[in-house]
Amino acid sequence: MEEAKLIIDGKEWIFPVIEGSEGEKAIDIRTLRQQTGYITFDPGFGSTGSCRSAITYMDGEKGILRYRGIPIEQLAEKSTFVETAFLLITGELPTRDELTRTSVHLNDFSLLHENMKAFYQNYPSKAHPMGILSAMVNAMRSFYPELIDLEEEMNKTYLRLISKIRTMAAMAYRISLGERVVYPKPGLCYCSNFLNMMFDSIVVPYQIDPDLVKALNVFWILHADHEQNCSTTAVRVVGSGKVNIYATLSAGISALWGPLHGGANQAVVKMLQRIHKDGMTIDDCIKRAKDKDDDFRLMGFGHRVYKTYDPRARIMKKMADIVLSKIQKDDPLLDIARKLEEVALKDPYFVEKNLYPNVDFYSGIVLRAMGIPTNMFTVMFAIGRLPGWIAQWKEDVSDPEMKISRPRQIYTGYQVRDYVPMSERRQG
Ligand code: SDX
Question: Which residues of 189-218 are buried (b: 16+ CB within 10 A; e: fewer)?
């Protein structure tokens, strides 16, 4: 067993080194405080492993992303979102029967409890769909309370969530427009059903376009998991308190909403629209993105793990070309995005800081081309990420090594002092 040696105040401490199946190594410091009285300090956890996991492997230096060992490029080309969700949650690709049974369950579970519609109708019409989604997933606990530990029942709970999150998203969109709700249609596949619920109308019945269905499958496959990112960590931390899965996933949706995380796809399009509307030059953008005193950042660029091109961005960039050529529409924002990328990738600031396009840089353009409104972009990310959150939650709660999350801190406040009665306090 490899060991790490730490010398504190002249005394030597030995800690075991653990190694993962791809050679990633960690110093096991679980007994550090108990042995030395010291803790480690790592805000943002950039050098901290929170768990062992067999779900997703990323190599940020080489731009590798694999779900249960299968490269994302192969899944994007050959798989579907439903099959990828099965792979993430169970660890294996489904047999033909398993895939058929999964699809039947997803169809059976696609309707929402009619009383849930009242929630939507009483939300302010301008409410952000991510806030609605987080609340609705949490509310599912009240409508589907039968959370028993039987594996079979929990598998149905996973499928119920994966199926209904799609219906909830489409319902939020339709009600925000004041349009009639379109119910899921039996017999339509997962992605086709979603597009139909979003865009079908009595006047012009929605025509399912196989290229857009493929693009949506690829979009959701690319977003399905990403090891211990911000929202997955939120799911693991909240789930470690043994609260029910609905409340746990609701926390993941809230964490994803942030513009530095899943909200970046919406922020990228807003940035591109601002550049287009204000007539900013590419050089202006690059200059402002580098200026610490300017709050303008190149949204969709940079990543905590990828220090090379995000492999998902490469696939998403191709999807943008395919979807736009399919709908025979030019999007000036795509031209701006391409020029921004071209200049940024040559700029010393971005090169030295390893800032490359991430999955969000092109995803907003693909979603726009599919007719998805900007304020639904992060909801689309959440639908994709749900199977990953479920897989990570399932792994966490069944891991004997895992305990309730409770980090330590370095206290920097007042040292001990006495209470001061009001009469003796400073005035003002
Ligand atoms: C996602 O973790 C995941 O896996 C997330 C995700 C997933 O699938 O779950 O991949 C999804 O969240 C993708 C990231 C989407 N967010 C954005 O595109 C927002 C823009 N990006 C940045 O905010 C930033 O790059 C982060 C948040 C993504 C990463 O931030 P880090 O790792 O904390 O890096 P940092 O902020 O410390 O930046 C390092 C340096 C800084 O400069 P210095 O202080 O060293 O001088 O790079 C600079 C930053 O100022 N920098 C940028 C920049 N991103 C980082 N400068 C300009 N534009 C940017 N976009």
Answer: bbbbbbbbbbbbeeeeeeebeeebbbbbbb
